[in-house]
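Severity: low
Component: inverse-folding endpoint
Summary: output formatting inconsistent between runs
Steps to reproduce: submit the following structure tokens with default settings.
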């Protein structure tokens, strides 16, 4: 005779932490990753398992950079192998060669003659660089120390001074990257100007009222919802990059030599998960901004390379992809922000992904 407890158990579900939702996926890939209380859903665990292993986390980041560079180099060479100079790039559904052409690379006389050899060199340099990055990633992830010495490149997530120093270094590198475009546009051959259909050197406009007005939607033609994407000349584009470079380098040096202020220590969350959330938020803004630029701007994304605005060309596909990636980054930002704040408050409400990470197996009544 079945007891009341047995009757209740016949209609209830048993739960463990092996993750029924993700288990088939992991097993099909030969992995055996279980959901844990710390990581939550195995699918979303990612590099959080390395949060206290600075050496292996560095390896993951370097290897990730290698994959990005490998894709860029391989895709450039693939597009080059399919490229027909007599057909517009956008009709060939190209996405990387148009970027190089916009930078004035390979354009010799308007857009009539295109020298493809620089594209080959750039693709090969990316492939070689990806091999170096890949080797570094494997070393740090597998062969190197799991934790870096805190006297050198190691760190403690709660060490605000070290964290702001790392932030400062990143800002300086971003500033240098912005300045490289400025040098290319003003000194090293110039960039393509769709208004005159020629590659030319640019004399940047540094007027702060004009440049920063774009941030609030004020363009030379009045207010517009597109904001920065309303820029209609290369002088403002390159001038904006000069300001970005100066602000990033200046801000980076400030963070390197200074320590976090009292209000920053109180307001911000100092943990690896929180830093990841901040980074994903920035990537989300970048993704959405690029999507708007591609959809509305013909100065930064010339129609001769990307197709007319509003047409069924590669321009629409690129905008969609960037918007999608921006949305995923936004979701990641909210997800990790929730986890970081919940960890500081020691209150976990649980999410859809936490629920799906549980292995819930219904028991059929006898």
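Observed output (run 2 of 3):
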């Amino acid at each position: 005779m079945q007891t009341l407890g047995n009757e209740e158990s016949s209609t209830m579900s048993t739960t463990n932490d092996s993750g029924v939702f993700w288990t088939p996926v992991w097993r099909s890939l030969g992995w055996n990753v279980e959901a844990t209380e710390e990581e939550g859903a195995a699918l979303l665990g990612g590099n959080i398992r390395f949060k206290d292993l600075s050496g292996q986390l560095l390896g993951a980041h370097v290897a990730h950079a290698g994959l990005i560079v490998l894709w860029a180099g391989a895709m450039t060479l693939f597009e080059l192998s399919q490229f027909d100079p007599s057909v517009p790039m956008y009709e060939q559904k190209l996405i990387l060669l148009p970027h190089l052409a916009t930078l004035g690379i390979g354009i010799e006389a308007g857009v009539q003659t295109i020298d493809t050899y620089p594209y080959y060199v750039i693709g090969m340099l990316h492939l070689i660089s990806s091999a170096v990055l890949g080797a570094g990633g494997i070393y740090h992830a597998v062969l190197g120390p799991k934790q870096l010495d805190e006297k050198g490149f190691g760190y403690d997530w709660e060490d605000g001074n070290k964290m702001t120093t790392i932030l400062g270094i990143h800002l300086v590198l971003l500033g240098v990257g912005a300045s490289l475009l400025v040098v290319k546009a003003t000194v090293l051959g110039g960039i393509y100007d769709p208004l005159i259909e020629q590659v030319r050197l640019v004399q940047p406009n540094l007027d702060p009222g004009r440049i920063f007005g774009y941030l609030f939607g004020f363009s030379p033609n009045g207010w517009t919802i597109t904001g920065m994407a309303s820029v209609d000349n290369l002088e403002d584009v390159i001038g904006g990059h000069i300001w970005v470079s100066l602000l990033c380098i200046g801000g980076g040096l400030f963070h390197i030599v200074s320590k976090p202020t009292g209000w920053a220590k109180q307001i911000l969350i100092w943990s690896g998960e929180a830093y990841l959330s901040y980074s994903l938020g920035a990537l989300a803004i970048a993704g959405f901004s690029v999507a708007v630029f591609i959809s509305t701007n013909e100065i930064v994304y010339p129609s001769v390379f990307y197709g007319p605005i509003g047409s069924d060309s590669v321009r629409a596909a690129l905008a969609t992809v960037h918007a999608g990636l921006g949305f995923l980054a936004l979701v990641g930002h909210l997800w990790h922000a929730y986890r970081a704040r919940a960890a500081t408050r020691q209150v976990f409400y649980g999410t859809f992904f936490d629920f799906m990470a549980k292995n819930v197996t219904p028991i059929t009544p006898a």
